Amino acid sequence: MPADRGFTAVALVTGANRGIGFEVTRQLAQGGLVVLLGSRDRDRGNAAAGQLAAAGDIVPVRLDVTDPGDVEDARRFVEDQFGRLDILVNNAAAFYDDDQTASSVDLDDVREAFEANFFGAWRVAQAFIPLLKRSEHPRLVNVSSESGSFEGGGGLTASYGLPGSVSAYGTSKAALNALTVKLAAELAEDGVLVNAICPGYTATDMGGGGRPVEDGAASVVWAASLPDDGPTGGFFRDGERLRW
Fold this sequence. Notes:
The structure is a single chain. The chain has helices at 19-30, 42-51, 68-82, 107-132, 167-187, 213-224; strands at 10-13, 34-39, 58-62, 87-90, 139-143, 159-160, 162-163, 193-197, 235-237, 240-241. By secondary structure, the protein is of the alpha/beta class. It has one domain (10-93, 117-147, 169-241): 3-Layer(aba) Sandwich (Rossmann fold). Strands 3-2-1-4-5-8-9-10 form an 8-stranded mixed β-sheet, with helices on both faces. Strands 6-7 form a two-stranded antiparallel ribbon. Helix 1 packs across helix 6 (213-224), helix 3 (68-82) runs parallel beside helix 4 and helix 4 (107-132) runs parallel beside helix 5.
């Protein structure tokens, strides 16, 4: 039976031991949620949860999104402890390749990017959708990027260091956006709101500069906190719709 911890909602954030995921975890916990801090490295996850202890109820969970065994272990833990999941934030990402172009990128690097950014998110979504369906207000948030936009000014045609670079990362995020649309259409009747969020150019280890992490994370928390009549199947930043 699920543990009675007196929570109003439980959220899982992948890749949460640093950067956007770390700050999303903080903001959700400060809002009174139980937040499962997913991290592929157990020690780093435990350390991050310790740093955030003052924010609220945070539970570190080992979760490498590229490892089916890890994903299943995390799913079983959430089911055993809580019986449902209210919010899933697919934040884990890898390989920001601002120095490679589509014509010359190492395809092993592309596979690495897709495994974490696309297949990892898909794997986690498939595992946790049954638990989301048990929630009264389920939300699935895919942390994406405008680098995967076909039309956006910072999209697939943009230059990041080299003309047409960020090829592995950008195409993996374009695929993630497509997955968002497919899941939103499928899960609409179940009341699961599914959206892709671009946190913007943000001062994380991956981004290397930009606006405060708190602002980027707030975009994600906005999607995680939508009312039941909120949008689904969209692409947003700061609550404003972006072009696919």
